[in-house]
Amino acid sequence: MIILGLTGSIGMGKSATANLFKDAGIPVYDADAAVHALYAEGGAAVAPLEDAFPGVAHKGAIDRQKLRTRVLDDPEAMKRLEGIVHPLAGEAQLDFRRRAKDDGAQFAVLDIPLLFETGGNRHCTYTLVVSAPADIQRARVLARPGMTEEVFESILARQMPDADKRARADFIVSTAHGFDFARDHVRAIIALMKRIADGETP
């Protein structure tokens, strides 16, 4: 089974692009959704995160805003957080891969925000970066409720620069011209992945 790793910096349209694959019937692993499930009431990350950062749990779930405040601009705290969450998210991803393979999927997509930063690209057959110009990215992110320049810059500081991601990618999808434009690119990539899965040389 071909694994296509999909990534992109904040505000680039990564999640919307992942949905284009879902709409086409392609299995998509959503790393953010997996983490949300880990943080939710009864999630596997709740107890260890509360132990590591007392006070971040509320009514049996992790308060993401409190957790963000605790780890923001604190590299050591971020390392502790990642040391707890990444292995649990990795288990969820393996479960997804097994289910997709058992269902007979020719290829599947892994939607992972920090794909290159965490080395997750090593486990992918191909990689795709969703990109847009910096001014469009900034406008999109700052339009989000509760977002500030400080938080935006802090998030950017933890992410590999867009140019570096694009240089490493096998495919680039631009969202600068709207999602009809991006959908055409996604359809072409799906067709190519299916040809490769059928044994054709790319």
UniProtKB/TrEMBL annotation:
EC assignment: 2.7.1.24
Keywords, ordered alphabetically: ATP-binding, Coenzyme A biosynthesis, Cytoplasm, Kinase, Nucleotide-binding, Transferase
InterPro entries with a match to the protein in the record: Depp_CoAkinase, P-loop_NTPase
Functional pathway: Cofactor biosynthesis; coenzyme A biosynthesis; CoA from (R)-pantothenate: step 5/5
Compartment(s) of residence: Cytoplasm
Catalytic activity: 3'-dephospho-CoA + ATP = ADP + CoA + H(+)
Thylakoid keyword on record: no
Coiled coil: none
GO terms under cellular component: cytoplasm
Residues spanning the signal sequence: none
Name of the top EC class for this enzyme: transferase
One Pfam family named in its UniProt record: CoaE
Residues binding ATP: 11-16
Molecular function as annotated in GO: ATP binding; dephospho-CoA kinase activity
Entry superkingdom: Bacteria
GO biological process, one term: coenzyme A biosynthetic process
Listed PANTHER family: BIFUNCTIONAL COENZYME A SYNTHASE-RELATED (PTHR10695:SF46), DEPHOSPHO-COA KINASE-RELATED (PTHR10695)
Family: Belongs to the CoaE family.
Summary of the function given for this chain in its UniProt record: Catalyzes the phosphorylation of the 3'-hydroxyl group of dephosphocoenzyme A to form coenzyme A.
Protein's name in the database: Dephospho-CoA kinase
Species this protein is from: Hyphomonas hirschiana VP5
Gene name as annotated: coaE
